[in-house]
């Protein structure tokens, strides 16, 4: 029987990468050039079946002999089957709390995080919306028996004493059963001169360091598990503190980790801790308060998990599509596999009667990005430059993002040609520094291909937002 689809033999992946590099093509530009869907190109490079006609054209474009580069069809169908159980319960819920068993595609990462936590504390960073909090809450709900994770969102706390009070209240909740949490109570009773049995600190409780230490001591001594203090939006909270308070809190937490080596902490959040520490250094801080913590970079979902989530949501919301799996993959790819935007797009499609097509996906994304209601809160990408880049760095950041938003992956030397012709961006070392910062802040990626180091936007969604908001 004649085959209707073909897939790349994985031995040819290096050759495909080489051809892409020589021709200065990305997956996106290749799809545009051949007028085929991005998902076909993605399937092609991931060795999944692609329609025969598209496979041949892709091979021709990349100077491959399609008969040699193809391999017998694998059982991709099995894979589809595993997605196919009906998920009536899946509902679009952008930004809402997702029940732990509806957090898709994070099993391996979570297993790695637990493994790593047995050794040391973690800094778990990552772009906003990629699903960090969902991961941390799932970990809290489904911890190994010997671990006691305590999750707390710190956004909005404004002083160290508020922070310590929150930690203590969480501790009380966990220790209530043992009924023995007493160090903090005893200390507060001494401090106030009468027995303290409240659930909030008295006004006079200013000695936050002592209170924090006693809280941790109670936690460590009153139960047998390994404590994992999960603090979400930690950089956000530190940014609310005075410089002095932020320094003291960071130093105190570090020294607590040393004194109680069985206590683990996870600092998470979307604002890079590097900005906070850099600011503190300007105010004279010279410590490295997190050099004992292991940094982990959270990523969006992988394509399979993102497709699966989209498929469940399409089914759960009963949204019509001729080829559900293909539509799910197209949606997932169009939003860089970031789960928040998947939920959001499905939410948009819910209201419409029409069939979802590639064109409709792209139009809806553009509408959301253009929306004056700032639906996807993308203005944050522009505002972050104002808030966290200094006056010298700002023009570099804007110029670099402007250039890259309308160009294919670009080398440093080409970027520099543009930058040096502008009045405010004439320092080559500063250009390099700002490029590094933009990578750390998830705007950009540095790709290493045969032509050398190339810089490009990390997420096409952000690139598209940048083009629109800057009027390109
Ligand atoms: N693994 C996942 N599976 C399903 N939905 C998810 C997943 N991760 C995140 N989401 C959705 O995306 C939204 C944003 O995720 P969240 O965990 O708050 O991201 P972050 O903390 O990185 O900003 C959630 O409210 C939820 O709707
Ligand atoms: Mg979060």
Topology:
Blueprint: E1 5-8, H1 13-22, H2 27-34, H3 38-45, E2 50-51, H4 52-61, H5 66-69, E3 70-71, H6 76-83, H7 107-117, E4 122-125, H8 132-141, E5 147-153, H9 160-175, H10 183-192, H11 208-222, E6 226-232, H12 234-240, H13 243-259, E7 264-269, H14 273-282, E8 294-297, H15 303-316, H16 324-334, H17 339-350, H18 358-370, H19 379-388, H20 393-405, E9 410-411, H21 412-420, H22 428-440, E10 444-449, E11 452-457, H23 460-469
Helix pairs in contact: 2-3, 9-11, 15-16, 15-17, 16-18, 18-23, 20-22, 20-23
Bound molecules: adenosine-5'-diphosphate and magnesium ion.
Give structural notes:
The chain has 472 residues and is α/β, with parallel strands linked by helices. The chain folds into 4 domains: 5-80, 434 Repressor (Amino-terminal Domain); 110-297, P-loop containing nucleotide triphosphate hydrolases (Rossmann fold, 3-Layer(aba) Sandwich); 301-370, Orthogonal Bundle (Helicase, Ruva Protein, domain 3), CATH 1.10.8; 379-469, Winged helix-like DNA-binding domain superfamily/Winged helix DNA-binding domain (Arc Repressor Mutant, subunit A). 53% of the residues lie in helices and 11% in strands. It has helices at 13-22, 27-34, 38-45, 52-61, 66-69, 76-83, 107-117, 132-141, 160-175, 183-192, 208-222, 234-240, 243-259, 273-282, 303-316, 324-334, 339-350, 358-370, 379-388, 393-405, 412-420, 428-440, 460-469, and strands spanning 5-8, 50-51, 70-71, 122-125, 147-153, 226-232, 264-269, 294-297, 410-411, 444-449, 452-457. The strands form 3 sheets. The chain has a 5-stranded parallel beta sheet, with helices on both faces. A 3-stranded antiparallel beta sheet has the order 2-1-3. Strands 9-11-10 form a 3-stranded antiparallel beta sheet, with helices on both faces. Strand 10 (444-449) and strand 11 form a beta hairpin. It is globular and about 85 Å long. The relative contact order is 0.10. Mean pLDDT is 89; it is low at 73-86. The chain binds adenosine-5'-diphosphate and magnesium ion. Residues 132-133, 232 line the site of magnesium ion (MG).
